[in-house]
Amino acid sequence: MKSASRSRRRHEEEHDNHERWLVSYADFITLLFAFFVVMYAISSLNEGKYRVISDAIVQAFRHDHVVTPQATGLAPLNRSVPVPALPRPIRPLNATPQQQQQQLQQVQQKEEEERKLVDMASRIREALAPLVQTGQVTLKQLPHGLAVEINASVLFAPGQAVLNPDSIAALQAVADVLKSTPEPVQVEGHTDNVPIASAQYPSNWELASARASAVVRLFVTSGVDPTRLTASGFADNRPVDSNETPEGRARNRRVTLFILAAPGDGSPA
Predict the structure, then answer these.
(1) Full-prediction pTM beyond 0.90?
(2) Which of left, alpha, beta for 223 (phi over 0: left; psi -120 to 50: alpha)?
(3) Most buried one in 135, 176, 193, 219, CB count within 10 A?
(4) Domain 99-260 carries which CATH code?
(5) Using CA atoms, how far apart are residues 123 and 148, in angstroms rounded to an integer?
(6) Cα dihedral 213/215/220/223 (nearest 10)
(7) Are 196 and 152 a contacting pair, CB within 8 Å?
């Protein structure tokens, strides 16, 4: 009996573990995961995000991480396989120094344009402060520039396109701001939907266009470069309020100045 027991124990000790390959397989999967994480990181142009990801990976594997038999529940091997630490890259591999410099210049240019528009809006708001306070003038920051909306009652008599004497000083103050900057300016005239049929203005199209042209002429005589100016009339086709109420129609009768952020941009209206 003792001899049979010793023989059985010796046979069990010599039994080979066929699952030892799983440890090497686990090491391979870990390295493959790290490889794809690195490839994902370098695919982005965001250098800051790239460094954060790579530093996190380096930190995770810095202490010679080892996959041990105890962690897998398998029979021990003769040795364990360490996972090497990843080197820290200097910059994304898919962006050359020239491309990075161009991207930096584009960001700086955009920030400078936004700063100029904010400064211009502040100066125009100061020049038209009484009208802004009464709600007859509104300023809006747009993705393509700045919009200055002036109620038509401030500028013109009903059904007319001749500037009121009281409005000329306010528009000249705006012209003083515009002539010191290079941005293009689009002047748009808008009416409500009440038809007009006079000898001078057969329809709202002529009235809206004439009002926009009157503002442009004043800017030119005040020193604004005429090559930067355009005048357009839209009649009642771009309302900002309902034409069903007197208040809505009054708001739709307006002249809007679009100060564009860069030459060649379309109207943001």
Answers:
(1) no
(2) left
(3) 219
(4) 3.30.1330.60
(5) 12
(6) -170
(7) no
